[in-house]
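Hey Z.,

So I finally got round to the PMH thing we talked about over coffee. Here's the setup:
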Amino acid sequence: MQNFYRDTWAEINLDHIEANVQSLKKQLPPNTEIMAVVKANAYGHGDLEVANAALKAGATRLAVAFLDEALALRKKGVTVPILVMGAVRPSDVTIAAENHISLTAYSKEWLKQAGKYLLHHEVSLHMKLDTGMGRLGIREEEELVESLSFIDTHACFQLEGVFTHFATADEKDTAYFKGQYDRFLTMLKHFEHKGVLIHCANSATSLRFPNDVFNAVRYGISMYGLPPSLDIVDEIPFKLKEAFSLHSSIVHIKKVKKGEKISYGATYTASEDEWIGTVPIGYADGWIRRLSGSDVLVDGERVPIVGRICMDQMMIKLKEEKPLGTKVTLIGSQKDQTISVNEVAKRLETINYEVPCMISWRVPRMFLKNGSIMEVRNSLL
Ligand code: PMH
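And the result:
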């Protein structure tokens, strides 16, 4: 199944995605729907493959950020309900309607504008309430009441759900979270007897407060096996299984003499005679220059990246000569050593969410199922 011709690839363990969905499902009250959040190409993992794994494991719906992402899934044959959580241009609502894609109604003005385009179409909506995230959504009860009555009086709109999003669900201190939750409860009074989907929980909320999630959750980061934050790791009720790993190979090796220099800017100087390997991954793959100096794994040992990371290549300092083709693991495990997504995030002073998202689609994704390669996605060919 070789359909890529470079020695760098990401592995996506679909068994781990399935296990992470199944484990959450066990925590939730029966009949709670799981919406798998597969925006940004499933946080860099691969939208269709992750969606199918999640659906197989018990998710019943998908959520994305943009209409294009939902259309891409439809084009690939996905038929389950998909919610676009971001803003869609009112002039594009007919495209959503034609493709049975549910949209987010986030203001009265949006409803009014969208309604103008829906002459012969019906579109399903989830109303977004802004309870403190300050991003999208209706904040005031007056606008909420007016928006609901606008929906009631316009047959082109079908109310399918109502939701909000928390700003601090992954923090130990739950005061702000509770404030948002209470505001949501108050606003929900206007949805009594409407029989719609009610959802507020991201991964952190689903894992910490599984009995307070109404009838659906939006499961993102932890479906990929990553904790929403390091603060609440102790509150995660099961072992998350990381799905993403990143690998390359040594394509060139040489011995450089003490005092010789490596890469752009000649910033690295060999302190002794050293074995230097060249690895074909660089900042255009998302392995950005700030990772210079960090470790990779070779034959189960940590070795450092030396000199500046180039656009497509980087150099590593080896302890001894290695055969060409030796595997280099940038994220993942070799023998008893592991470089986790969290380790890379820490090094970059960012959150784990950013790490798989930043690995560009020039890096082919290899999907593993039952320990063997199910499929490879090479976006270039
Ligand atoms: N719902 C909404 C509206 C979201 O924006 C996100 C993630 C999720 C659910 C899933 O959250 P989880 O991955 O923590 O489970 N959104 C983002 C974001 O906009 N930036 O980082 C994560």
